[in-house]
Design goal:
It is a single chain. By secondary structure, the protein is mainly alpha-helical. The protein has three domains: 2-43, no CATH class; 53-79, no CATH class; 84-162. The chain is 60% helix and 10% strand. Strands 1-2 form a two-stranded antiparallel sheet. Strands 3-4 form a two-stranded antiparallel sheet. The N and C termini lie far apart (118 Å). It binds zinc ion.
Amino acid sequence: MTIELPCSGCGQQLRVRDEDAGRQARCPQCGAVTSVPLRSPQGFGTPIPPPGTPSSSGPINPYSSPPSFAGESPYQSPRPNYGTPHRGTTVLVLGILGVTCCFICAPIAWIMGNNDMKAINNGTMDPTGKTTTQVGMILGIIGTLLGGCGIIVQVLALIAQNR
Ligand SMILES: [Zn+2]
């Protein structure tokens, strides 16, 4: 191992043996005498990191990990937090069926959609299905009203026939 240090006279890099640390080195070019430091830069650098890295990484980890969690939370934690997955597709299908063919499905879509909308607004259900649930609920309301009107008309027609 050698110590490199600039000459105090001409600035040339002098290579000195480790054994000469703390002594005077004479420059071969200009003859100026330069004092050699006791410890090489490597000797200074290596002892410091071992106590430094655990102590510095220790405080850093508790502080650095919460920001990383906070940074991920908008993307990852909302989904686990909403334990209940949304039923938007089911509500929508029931609503469409209620409007088009199966009247019984309409009030189910209405009730399911109404409950799910409350859950989504409370934050207990996956909010990604909000629009689908809303559309399904509206279709359920329409289907219920249409079906209700149809039943009333049919009942009235039956009454009229029986008279
Ligand atoms: Zn020199």
